[in-house]
Amino acid sequence: MHKKIQELRSQRWFASDDIRGFAHRQRMQQQGLAREEFMGRPVIGILNTWSDLSPCHAHLRDRAQAIKRGVLQAGGYPLELPAMSLGEVMVKPTTMLYRNFLAMEAEELMRSLPLDGVVLLGGCDKTTPGLVMGATSMDIPALFCPAGAMLNDRYQGQAVGAGTHTKKYWEQYSIGNISQPEWIGLEARMTRAPGTCNTMGTASTMTSIVEAMGLALPGSTSLPAMDAAHTRMAWACGQRIVAMVWDDLRPSRILTRNAFLNGVAAWMALGGSTNAAVHLPAMAGRAGVALTLDDFDIMARQVPVLTNLFPSGNKLMEDFYYAGGLPALLQRIRAHLSLDALTCTGDTLGANIEGHASSDDEVIRPLDNPVIATTSDCPEAGMALAVLHGNLCPDGAVIKPSAATPALLRHTGRALVFDSNAEMLAAVNDPDLDVDENTVLVLRNGGPVGGPGMPEWGNLPIPKKLLKQGIRDIVRLSDSRMSGTHYGTCVLHISPESAVGGPLALLQTGDQIRLDISARTLDVLVSDSELAERRKQWRAPEQPYKRGFTRIYQHEVTQANHGCDFVSLEGAEKTPEPPIY
Ligand code: FES
Ligand code: MG
Question: Is the pTM of this model over 0.80?
Answer without folding.
Answer: yes
